[in-house]
């Protein structure tokens, strides 16, 4: 996961994380204590970006390069996971599974295979674009805290998990030891409850901010893979963002560079973009997703030229 030749700037990551957390908390407070709809909307939009900064740092911790000190990295990952909210170990095993399955038949959200329903895959795609897939992640984390053994049940893996296209992820999660994962889940729940009651948040304010974040997060997560080659490493884009979005997402748009070498810290990703790499704009790819799923192209075993 961690490349010893890469410079991990732990102090910078901590400072950015603290600033983003304070801003996100302020947005939650504002959305919960304002009676003006436009103030709530602005707070929710701002939160959707600053919480993506926290997610990007969480992503760094998943790959082991938030901080050079392993203990600091792990605790930062647990706390950052709580701001999503999800469970750090679940996110790690799911994300590393994504790197193994990227653009395979098991992970192809923008296209449908011959035996699959266009209507169902398009429905899933709309769930992604409207934030409902984000909502499944916190709900799954809560289910794990309440009933962790459900993830190991065949009826759960072959029923709800399979219907929503998450069976490989649930199977990976089920292989993890329950105790450590449950404790991380309890920490996530405690952090969210502390935020909610400590800041006097309202359910409407919390939901407005987090749903805006879910839409923003989902849009980037799947646009940076949509319509790319069906290749495990080359199946991603180096998207063109505005300078502000690129800064707030901590270079997350250079996703092809990340898939080629997941050990590269976010600060160095722009230096690893190849001269011939496509650099499409986010918006046309995102807009195309609203037209529904496309027929799947064949898998590619060779690196596309």
Description:
- It contains 14 helices and two strands.
- It has helices spanning 10-33, 37-62, 70-82, 88-101, 118-129, 132-146, 154-158, 160-163, 167-174, 178-198, 203-223, 243-248, 255-260, 282-289; strands spanning 111-112, 294-295.
- Helix 2 (37-62) packs across helix 11.
- The chain is globular and about 50 Å long.
- The two termini are 27 Å apart.
Subunit organisation of the chains: single chain
Order of strands, widest sheet: 1-2
Task: Note the total helix count.
Answer: 14
Number of strands: 2
Distance between the termini: 27 Å
Give the radius of gyration: 19 Å
* Sequence stretches where pLDDT stays below 50 over 5 or more residues: none
Element pattern in H and E = HHHHEHHHHHHHHHHE
Main sheet record: 2 strands, parallel
In a few lines, what is going on in this structure?
By secondary structure, the protein is an all-alpha fold. It is built from 14 helices and 2 strands; from the N terminus they run H-H-H-H-E-H-H-H-H-H-H-H-H-H-H-E.
């Amino acid at each position: 996961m961690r490349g010893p030749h890469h410079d991990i700037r732990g102090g910078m990551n901590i400072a950015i994380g603290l600033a983003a957390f304070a801003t996100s908390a302020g947005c939650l407070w504002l959305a919960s204590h304002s009676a003006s709809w436009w103030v709530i909307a602005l707070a929710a939009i701002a939160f959707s970006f600053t919480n993506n900064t926290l997610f990007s740092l969480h992503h760094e911790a998943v790959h082991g390069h938030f901080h050079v000190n392993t203990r600091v990295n792990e605790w930062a990952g647990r706390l950052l996971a709580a701001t999503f909210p999800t469970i750090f170990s679940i996110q790690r095993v799911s994300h590393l599974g994504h790197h193994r399955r990227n653009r395979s038949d098991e992970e192809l959200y923008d296209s449908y295979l011959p035996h699959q329903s266009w209507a169902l895959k398009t429905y899933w795609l709309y769930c992604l674009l409207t934030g409902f897939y984000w909502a499944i992640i916190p709900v799954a984390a809560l289910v794990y805290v309440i009933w962790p053994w459900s993830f190991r049940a065949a009826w759960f893996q072959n029923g709800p998990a399979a219907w929503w296209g998450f069976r490989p992820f649930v199977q990976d999660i089920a292989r993890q030891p329950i105790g450590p994962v449950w404790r991380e889940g309890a920490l996530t729940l405690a952090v969210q409850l502390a935020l909610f009651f400590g800041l006097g948040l309202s359910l409407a304010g919390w939901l407005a901010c987090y749903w805006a974040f879910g839409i923003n997060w989902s849009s980037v997560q799947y646009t940076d893979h949509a319509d790319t080659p069906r290749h495990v490493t080359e199946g991603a884009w180096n998207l063109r963002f505005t300078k502000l979005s690129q800064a707030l997402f901590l270079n997350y748009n250079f996703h092809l560079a990340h898939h080629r070498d997941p050990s590269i810290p976010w600060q160095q990703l722009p230096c690893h973009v190849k001269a011939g790499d496509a650099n499409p704009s986010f918006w046309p790819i995102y807009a195309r997703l609203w037209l529904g799923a496309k027929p799947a192209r064949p898998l590619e075993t060779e690196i596309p030229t």
